[in-house]
Amino acid sequence: MSTRAVAPTAETCETPTTPPPGATPPRDNGCEGNLHSPRVREGSLHSLPSRGQRNRRRARGAMSAGSVATATGEGITVLAPITLVAPIEPDPGRPQRFRAITRLAVEATEPVFAGHYPGRPIFPGVCLLDCALRSARLARPTAVTDSRPTEIESARFTGIVVPGAIVTTELTWQPRDEGWRCSARLSTGDGEVATIRLRYGPGRRPEQHETVSADTVLDAADIRRMLPHRYPILLVDRVTELAAGERLTATKAVTGNEFCYAADTAGTAYPVPLLLESWVQAAALLAVGTPGTGGADALLLLGSVTGVGIGKPVLPGEIVTHRVILTRSLGDTLLFEGGSSVGAEPVQAVRQAVLAFRTEEPRSTHA
C-alpha cells in the first residue's frame, strides 16, 4: 500500500452558514486537524433517531442554533470529509442542550492504514478522536466561540474500525462549569466504537516539566523493532530516558514534510490527535519494556484516555518531549500518566491512559 498522502477532494475551507431546508448538508473537508488504537471489546448496539425524527430535523435546518467552524490552521490526518446528516438544534424540552449527527466513510486509501498496521489495517483510535473533534467544529452552538478544546475529558475506545466502515458520530452539547461540554458517541453498523467528551472554555492546563538529558537510549531502529507502527503513523523518534517498569522520556521532531501537511489546505499547527498518538506510542514503548507483560504475539491497544489538557499549538521545526510514568500494572493492562512539552513550554498533559496487551484477533466492527 502506498504511503503517499493524497490531497482531499476539491472542497474549500469557507465560513458556511446553516444550510437552508432541502440543501445538501455541509461536509467538513478535513481542514482542521485530526487521531487511536482501540480497545478490544464489543460495543453495545447503537440506535439512531427514527426516519421521522431525522426528516423533522432536516426540515428545521434553517432554525439551527449552530455554525460551521472555520479552519484553525492545523494539519490534516484523516483525508475523508465529514458529512453533517442532522444539523445542530436544541433538544426539545432542554433549550440549553444541542444535538447533531455526522458521518465519516473510512476509505482503504487513508494514509494511516499503511502504518497502522502493515497487513493488519486498523483505524487508529486517535482517528476516531479526530472524527469527534472535526464533528464538533462542524456543528457547534453559536455560544461556543473557540473551535479548539481546552481538554479531552475522556476518550474510551470500545470497538475496532477497519477500512470500509461508516462511522456515525452523535454530538450532545451542554453548558458545563462556565464553559461547554461536547459528548460524542461514535458507532458503526455493528455497534458503539468510542465515547468521547471534549471541554471548551476553562479547563485543565498542562504543567511545566523539568528539562532532562538529551542522551539517546533507544534510536529509530530500536523503536521500529519494538512497535508495529510504520510510516506515516510512527511518531516517536528516540528515547532519552528509560527506567523499565517505571518511566520513560522520548522525543518527536515535528517537520513540515509530514503527511499531515501534504494537502494544499493544511495549516501549520500539528494536529492535537497526532500529538496524543505520539505520547501514547511513547507509553507503548514503556509498556513493551516492562517485565512480565505482553508476549511475542500480543498486540498493544489503547483502551482509554482521561483528562488530556491541551496547551499551545505545536509547529513544524519544534521538538516535542514526552514524559511517561507507569502508575499501575494489572497483568496485561497498564495505566500511565504524563505530559508533553516544547522546551519549557507545556503543550499536553495526560491524567491517565489505559493500554492493554491482547493476543486474540481483534474483533472487527465492520463485516
Give a nutshell description of this structure.
This is ApeI dehydratase-like domain-containing protein. Keywords: Lyase. With 367 residues, this protein is mostly beta strands.
Structural account:
By secondary structure, the chain is mainly β. The longest helix has 17 residues, at 272-288. Strands 1-3-4-7-8-9-6-12-15-14-13-11-10 form a 13-stranded antiparallel sheet. The chain has helices at residues 51-59, 125-138, 220-226, 272-288, and strands spanning 27-28, 66-67, 82-91, 94-105, 140-141, 151-157, 166-176, 179-188, 191-200, 238-243, 247-253, 299-310, 319-330, 333-342, 345-358. 13% of the residues lie in helices and 35% in strands. It has 4 helices and 15 strands. The chain folds into 2 domains: 27-200, Hotdog Thioesterase (Thiol Ester Dehydrase, Chain A, Roll); 220-358, Thiol Ester Dehydrase, Chain A (Roll), CATH 3.10.129.10. The chain is globular.
CATH class of the largest domain: Alpha Beta
Question: Main sheet: which strands, in order across?
Answer: 1-3-4-7-8-9-6-12-15-14-13-11-10
The total domain count is: 2
In the predicted model, the low-confidence regions spanning at least 5 consecutive residues are: 1-27, 29-72
Give a count of the beta strands, DSSP E runs of length 2 or more.
15
Can you write the helix and strand succession as a string?
Answer: EHEEEHEEEEEHEEHEEEE
Protein name: ApeI dehydratase-like domain-containing protein
Keywords: Lyase
Family: Belongs to the thioester dehydratase family. FabZ subfamily.
GO molecular function, one term: lyase activity
